[in-house]
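ok trying this again, last paste got cut off
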Amino acid sequence: MKKWILAAAISAALFGCAGQQQAETTLPAGVTLLESVSFSGQDVGIPYRKYELANGLTVILHEDHSDPLVHVDVTYHVGSGRELVGRSGFAHLFEHMMFQGSEHVADEQHFKMVTEAGGNLNGTTNTDRTNYFETVPNNQLEKMLWLESDRMGFFLPALTEEKFEVQRETVKNERAQRIDNRPYGRMGERFDQAFYPQGHPYSWPVIGWPEDLDRADVEDVKHFFQRWYGPNNATLTIGGDFDEMQALAWVNQYFGEIPAGPEVKAPVKTLVTLDKTLYLSMEDRVHLPLIKMAMPTVYARHEDEPALDLLSNILGGGKTSIFYKNLVKDGYAVQAGVSHPCQELACQFSMYALANPAQGGTLADLEKIMRDSVTEFEQRGVTDDDLEKVKVNFEAATIFGLQSVQVKVSSLAFNETFSGNPNMIGTDLARYANVTKEDVMRVFNKYIKDKPMVVMSVVPQGQKQLIAKADNFVAPTEKIAAVAVQDLNAAPQITSAFDRNVVPPVGAAPVLKIPTLWQGKLANDIEVIGTETNETPTVEVVVYLNGGHRVIDIEQAGLASITASMMNESSLKRSSEELTQALEMLGSNVSFGASGYQSRLQISSLTENLDATMKIVQEKLFKPAFNQADFDRVKQQVLQNLQRQLTEPNYLASRAFSTLLYGDKSPFGVSSGGSIASVTAISLDDVKAFYKRQYTAGNAQIVAVGNLNEAQMLSKLTGLNGWTGVKTSFPELAVLPEFTGGKIYIVDKPEAAQSVIKIGKRALPYDATGTFFKSYLMNYPLGGAFNSRINLNLREDKGYTYGARSFFSGGPEQGFYQATASVRSDVTTEALVEFIKEINGFQATGMTEDELSFMQNSISQSKALNYETPYQKAGLMRNIQRYNLDDNYSEQQTEITNNITLDELNSLAKSQLKIDDMLILVVGDRAKIESELSTLGYPIEVLQL
């Protein structure tokens, strides 16, 4: 495969020498240039300069002037793996605490300042690192550095017991939402208890054990910060549209005076081993039995990691794998796969299968098939195609992954944190390119063949007979470290040499780079809208087919989705496995899908492989096989997935909410995925008939983004010129049911750890510049931003939820308003009261002048971030195409946003947010919540789904 060069890399190569000389003569005092990296010729990589401050902070700067934005990332080399036994959850808890203000940044101001600047932000924690990041318009860089430096150097003076308690509750809510209330949610943490020896840093969950969180106090949090959050344990990476010397001066000003923390040594990497195969099981509120099997291998960046990754792909990496053939295609499993995830200290060679209950669902049978599949690999060996497709896909994924500044910054930060070298892209490509057949067989024999493993069964409640084998593992009693932090030698809190209470000024607003669009037609009059982008040699094409769920009979709900799934299967010429193999050899992806108003064909390809990819597209689009065997398997998978969804509270809430609003005779009230009854009734003949009226040229519209101009792109699409067929008309909608608000509906979910609350009503269809858009502006300070009234109340002040929001959603014909959150079960009524209070208060008095200013700044300035990636550009173009909008509709929206009055917005609030017009839906444990809900005075109805 040909190598490629980013335009930014070419620029860096041309000016690298002169730039380095300038840097060496003008660096701020205490700043050292460690390396300057650029690329030319056939090399692959991200150009950057790497510096170090006197306090040990590593600084990486990557200039990319293609869009008027910057991305700032601060990565600390601390995750849950740095915690002590019995003291879990600190790293993740601290991620939350770092957003609660610092000495010179008031409570909740970090989120507000970034959001008002038009940016977005977040933080994440895993076993090995914690990172905080912001993407903002380029004139906001200095302010971001001020914010990040203040929480690095001046967090502790603002730490309070009250903040700690609120965030501890927020973390518990996050655990309830993501783990306790989710099917299979506890599987990972239970599995890791068996997989790793007691006391191993990965033997406890990143989010922490609840009892460990309860054990923590504010002093523990303080000590954890002092031990791990010093500049010498951090990497600051900045990418985007900025001046390097100015950025470096700001970095030195804001971070340079922060003292280094205690010495941080790299964790010791000791290979994990198992003495024997361990079995464990758990019952859960699930429909599909699941088996997971894994054995320990190496650790990230070990010399054997690439060969093990290739081995996992051969065994279970999609439709061309052995696991897919033996488990999924033969109908024993709904899903199955093999992966080799690696962390800093350990990797797992992981195999799983979701049993198909129609085939019995016995996990002992699946275990045998999985073991037999591993044996089959040994007999089959490794082919040239096995190696080539993985290498090609790795390189293609690398190229596609560099379409945004955030991804490039994340790559530089990750590689520096764990390798001490940001420039690892070329090294990693070489590692995978150099893997041989012999390497794959060697690692198979060394780490996989006949090796002990952990085998876990997760079965539906009351069906213990389905487990693979009786448990022989019992989790040991947890030990508790005497202290939360060891080797603490903290520097005293400093007083800044300058006034950090002064918020840095911002520069002139960036000039927005709205894509230059072109509109054309194929020979058969299919409309094409496109734009040229030259940051990567890639092409994204989406063929939209107007119709989807909207044009089917409700009795056949799910037909559009099943037809799309069948389009992903065999053609008349080749099996689905052969088609997948052909695409993998090109590093391309072709997939069909369907939703409420459209079916779609999505194409991703390296530009040099687009012609070959389009030949496969034509084969799949024009010559689907519609084999009965494929249909039977796909239909069974859909049915089992529907059964699984009935165990998920959020699915139940969405389904019930739609039905209450629109009734069960409308496509808006019935899931596009269908129901068990409707899908059961669908036949292969139904699929063939729907294909003939949906997949026609008359329904098609195309969006295209890539490094090709209009003429070049249209020439690549000429294979679609022979496509024929008329446009499908939309059937008349059923009369909507009479809707009345002021009532609570309950969907019972026994033993639910949380309640899902939805409050809402039918509302406005989509428009780009009318009442719908203005209602979006109106709702923004109520529930549309992180620091909205609803979220600050329910999450930050009360600790009831991990997140709460409200929004208007609109389509071509209908829309709705919804306020929603998943809350702790024990505060369901209290949370509902707060929701109602906030909505009523906003409806009565409207937003304030400060909220108006915040909304206008946030939404207008965020436009700088809206058109960076090909998919963002495609989204802009699809909106123009779908709703027949002006090319400059985004600029029209900015004009409206900046000039709309408080009176107009508050008038909308009065008309759109009447709580008596809204229904209230709660999905939760009826036995625990109904009696308290009844005290609110609303009539209550229990729904059966």
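PB: full thing came through this time. The two ends are 53 Å apart (CA to CA).
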